[in-house]
Design brief:
By secondary structure, the protein is α+β, with helices and mostly antiparallel strands. It is built from 17 helices and seven strands.
Length: 412
């Protein structure tokens, strides 16, 4: 049977790549920083103690996201952060962008306090653990996206469900850069320092349900193992990329489709098919149309590299930190990106550990080369920090790394 193909979609790969470059890298003088903080949640009145969605929605009231309360106005908290709920009931704060780490941390601290007060009304507490060491992974959100993700990842192993339901992270977002050369410098810095900073802030050695193996960051292990085609990132990430905009666009189109949005609850994608296949017409009979910009926008949300381009650059490699230590990853990146000289010095420090993503998640600070880079990068960040309190926190982080202790004070 011949299926009609819509004429409004992409019909050439160059057009799709150009679109990706435009939406994923917004150019302009870099000045803003934002962050997302995630916590595992516990409900004192339920058994097992994972809170149900109704309790979360009731606790959050007008701040509840539409994923748990479709009629909610989803208002930001007083300092501007939006609340979201992850598939396993984790709570996330997504900040507004700020012009400094100091302002960002102050806003997040205020909204964390407001969030905890809201949750306490329904006997829900938020725990700063990057991985759940006690509970079996269980998905609460029944949205088609998460159903498709779980089904796809279960074909590979248990890591996808564990990541979705039983892990939590700190994510830091920074502007992409003023132009192609500036983007390349900032992109390459974030890639270069990634393994050493994974080691510096890894604090999830225990995760219930994970296959045997000692890892400093079981959370990052789940990301690297769930589907490497969409989590390891462009091949150029291991080296120097002169044009990350073009490299990222090429990579995105060759990532297999995770799901295709349709009417109804099932969004399964043709197995093994990439977005480029869809553009080229190889899926005309199965899907019945070429992909539109909205389809590509959605596909972009289903790739999970350690640094993701979403208009700005989203750094995804930090474990949730104990207590208020989430300030340290934020302050680290602000300091290392503060000037061209800082970027060059940090990139040089990290040159020996660049590309060692999996080693960093597995060995953390127990690896001498990664530990040396972690110490030097956090020392440099402490020296460059514009705020005395943030500098003191980074100094403490550097001393901890020198002792080969993770953020929980445990020896690697």
């Amino acid at each position: 049977m011949v299926v009609a193909v819509e004429s409004t979609g992409f019909t050439s790969r160059p057009a799709a790549e150009s679109y990706v470059g435009g939406v994923c890298f917004k150019l302009g003088p870099p000045r803003l920083i934002g962050a997302e903080l995630e916590w595992l949640t516990h409900h004192a009145r339920s058994s097992p103690d994972r809170p149900d969605l109704a309790s979360i929605a009731a606790a959050l009231g007008p701040h509840a996201p539409k994923s748990v309360a479709p009629d909610s106005p989803a208002r930001p908290l007083p300092a501007g952060s939006l609340v979201t709920v992850e598939p396993g009931g984790q709570i996330e704060l997504s900040s507004a962008p700020h012009d400094s780490a100091v302002a960002l941390c102050a806003a997040l601290a205020a909204d964390e306090g407001a969030l905890r007060a809201l949750l306490a009304r329904r006997s829900i507490t938020a725990h700063a653990h990057a991985a759940d060491s006690r509970r079996t992974a269980r998905r609460l959100l029944e949205l088609p996206r998460y159903r498709a993700m779980e089904e796809r990842f279960e074909e590979i192993g248990p890591f996808g469900k564990l990541m979705m339901c039983n892990t939590a992270a700190v994510q830091v977002s920074v502007d992409a850069g003023a132009g192609v050369a500036d983007v390349a410098r900032r992109w390459n810095l974030l890639q270069a320092v990634g393994p050493a900073l994974i080691a510096a802030f890894a604090c999830s050695p225990r995760l219930r349900g994970v296959p045997p193996g000692e890892w400093a960051s079981q959370r990052m292990r789940t990301w690297f193992e769930l589907d490497r085609s969409r989590t390891i990132g462009p091949p150029e990430s291991a080296g120097f990329s002169a044009d990350p905009i073009a490299d990222y666009a090429r990579w995105v189109l060759d990532v297999p489709l995770l799901c295709v949005r349709r009417d109804g609850p099932r969004w399964a994608a043709p197995p093994g098919a990439t977005f480029a296949d869809w553009v080229d017409g190889a899926l005309d009979d199965e899907i019945g149309r070429r992909p539109t910009p909205a389809d590509l926008d959605y596909h972009l949300t289903t790739v999970f590299p350690a640094v993701r381009a979403v208009g700005h650059l989203e750094v995804r490699y930090f474990d949730t930190q104990p207590g208020d230590q989430w300030r340290q990853p934020i302050a680290t990146l602000e300091a290392l990106l503060a000037s061209g000289e800082a970027v060059d010095e940090a990139t040089a420090i990290a040159s020996s550990t660049r590309g060692r993503w999996i080693d960093a998640a597995r060995y953390g600070l127990a690896d001498g080369e990664l530990r040396r880079a972690a110490v030097q990068l956090t020392e440099l960040a402490a020296d460059l920090a514009s705020d005395r309190d943030l500098a003191a926190g980074l100094g403490a982080a550097s001393a901890r790394c020198r002792r080969a202790e993770n953020p929980m004070g445990e020896r690697s």
